[in-house]
Amino acid sequence: MKKFSIAIHGGAGAIPKTVPEKDKLIYLNALDGILRYGHDLLASGRAALDTVELVVNEFENSPLFNAGKGAVFNSEGKNELDAAVMDGRDRSCGAVTCVTRIKNPVSLARIVMENSSHILLCGKGAEEFAKEHGIKFVRNSYFFTQKRYDQWLKLKERNTTALDHSSDLTGSAKGTVGCVAKDRFGNIAAATSTGGMTNKNYGRIGDTPLIGAGTFADNATCAVSCTGTGEEFIRTVAAYEIHALMKYAKLSLDRACEKFVREILKPDTGGLIAVDSEGNTSCPYNSKGMYRGSADSDGLFEVKIWE
Ligand code: ASP
Q1: Would you say residue 169 has pLDDT above 80?
Q2: How many whole angstroms separate alpha carbon 286 and alpha carbon 262?
Q3: How far is it, in rounded angstroms, from Cα 304 to Cα 75?
């Protein structure tokens, strides 16, 4: 059993191997720094729940990833953000969807979890709740990045939606973010945050804030965070499916994740990161690539985009 372990993702999709070397390095360095931060939090005894939130905050504050600052644009040319967090100790969970002025949606999700009797709050109601709890607000224009805006203009012209890592968008910023962790006390947790899909219908909700689809955690089995075409992860109840394969079919974490991604998830859809209560991690995907990293107390420390 590992004392602690962590896995992170910065999105999956049709990431071409022809990405210029300098762009590749920018992403690998960013992943490396965020993974190191999460690793050190766990090493110093921070709880899994705190760690997944703080790590996702780092992703949200970076313009490189499709969450918080780097969020993609919806069909109205605005940024609508989704996030969720779940604590494996007792399945406490919180989520927000379609928020437009919250700097760190995952932290609002945690406040929903800890300070309300609800699990999922949307739009105006979520923002009113945020105000009451002193959460940091920004103008919607804070989320503007030229690259994301240009991606949106392209897709709007074609009247289509896309994961922001599709090959047409070579060299541009990359996807949804997530973190799963096991701490020194044997607890696991998961968190996911996203701007969703470029040119999505306004009001569209993806898998990220839906507990059991894009995010799930239960100390008895695993903690999971997904990335890719949200509709497919909702249809397959992805994160819960991994849990169910472990709990009822008695598969190991690795076998459950592989079975799900190879046999259940539609090809070319995306991927996920997962950790079990022993501290094993698994990061399978069926898209061309996935920005990811994993580390543990036994010395594992790696960040990758492709195999
Ligand atoms: N799963 C996210 C969504 O559909 C998108 C992504 O992972 O890039 O909202």
Answers
A1: no
A2: 7
A3: 32
